[in-house]
Amino acid sequence: MGNARPGFGADADASPKAGAAINHMPGFQPDIPALFLPKRYGRDEIVTLDSDEERHARALRLRAGDPLLLLDGNGSRTDAVVERIDRRSVAVRIGESVLDGAEGRTYIVLGIGILSDRARFEWLVEKAVELGVREIQPLVTARSEGRIQTERTRRIAIAALKQSQRSFLPAILEPLPFAQMVGSLSRFGHSYICHETASPSDSLVRFLCDSAVPPSLAILIGPEGGFSSEEACNAQQAGAIVASLGEARLRAETAALVALSLAASLSDARPRNAG
Questions:
Q1: Helix axis angle, 118-130 relative to 150-164, nearest 10°?
Q2: Of 37, 70, 155, 185, which one has the greatest count of Cβ atoms within 10 A?
Q3: Which DSSP letter does residue 186 get?
Q4: Could you tell me which of 174, 189, 185 has the C-alpha nearest to residue 139?
């Protein structure tokens, strides 16, 4: 997990290599497997896969000449072919790279109270990757319990990146006290805290539909038991909109999935407000 937050849609090493094309989210390629290669290489370079991706390539029963999609998790999507696969290693030949231009999509950040059930948090991480979330910020709240397993969570996120063929691997940040998250809400174009005290008429979907799509957006979801009334009040005073997800009582990970799905769908469907 990282400590630093990348800039919205402008990660430090996101500039394409010479000759790389820039495009909006290229289409899913169901017949071509994806592997994770965090470093970028030039066309026609031969690269030996690390142990994790080598195991994945062998599990896929790849053979020399088979096409691949290489994802670096930072916007680059590279065509490649298997150059060599033997007992000792798997090597690929780098082809054309495309940089996924994220300028038209909102930079979505999920702030989620730490869940006591690790499996439920990991399931949520997987779904957040699939939906294109750019940061996942675990929050230490009045009712949060449990802890985050760093390397395991990252492996789950990488597997979801490859399965969904998303271009960006979200930053999974170190747990942060809720008060510090509230203090940073001004950096977002819009921020929403989902809480049971909100009227059903103050629905998240209404707020999202009634406003222009912002460059960045934070969604705050409480842990089991939700946010306390004081936490919701503090977030509101810091500029967050208190929003409802409907009358049904949702588990924390379900609430997060509903909220993220709404935000991601509207971001994809509507032009973003450049301001």
A1: 30
A2: 70
A3: G
A4: 174
According to DSSP, the residues that pair with 46 across neighbouring strands are: 93
Residue 112 bridge partners (DSSP) = 138, 221
Structural tokens at position 84 = 């060599």
For the segment 222-257, what is each residue's pLDDT rounded down to a tens digit? 999 999 999 999 999 999 999 999 888 899 999 999
Q: In terms of CATH, what superfamily is 107-269?
A: SPOUT methyltransferase, trefoil knot domain (3.40.1280.10)
Task: Decide: 188 and 247 in contact? Cβ < 8 Å.
Answer: no
Please state at what angle helix 118-130 crosses helix 252-269, rounded to 10 degrees: 10
DSSP state of 2: B
Domain 21-100 has CATH 1.20.1250.20: no
For residue 32, give the nearest of 72, 80, 86 by alpha carbon.
80
Q: Is the pTM above the cut of 0.70?
A: yes
Pairing of strands 241-243, 190-194: parallel
